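Running this now, will post back.
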Amino acid sequence: MDIKLKAVAVPVSDVDRARHFYRALGFRLDLDQAEGDVRVVQLTPPGSQCSIIIGTGISSAEPGSAVCVLRVNDLGAAVADLRARGVAPSPVSHCPAGFACLTFTDPDGNTWLLVDDVPVR
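Update: finished.
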């Protein structure tokens, strides 16, 4: 059986603010649909096959409780890109698996870990 991860729910307190933040990071807007008390916004990072879902009525998780991991092929370029988009990443460090990594947070405090594609030697 072939199983692929489609999307991960990221809990936020303000859907429009979060939508703007992720769009400013270059995430593609795939869906923004509301029906009754439920609103689903699906966004996909550049080059990714897995999306995030933010919205109302989709999760009971507390805003800021998510930890998501993104893999990039050039961590230095990713740092420059984040800064150009107004995001302050942490200093680059070494993750336990031997890769260089950094973190940043969205406006609700959800943590994003960026991991370099190439292990540190």
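The chain has two helices and eight strands. More later if anyone needs it.
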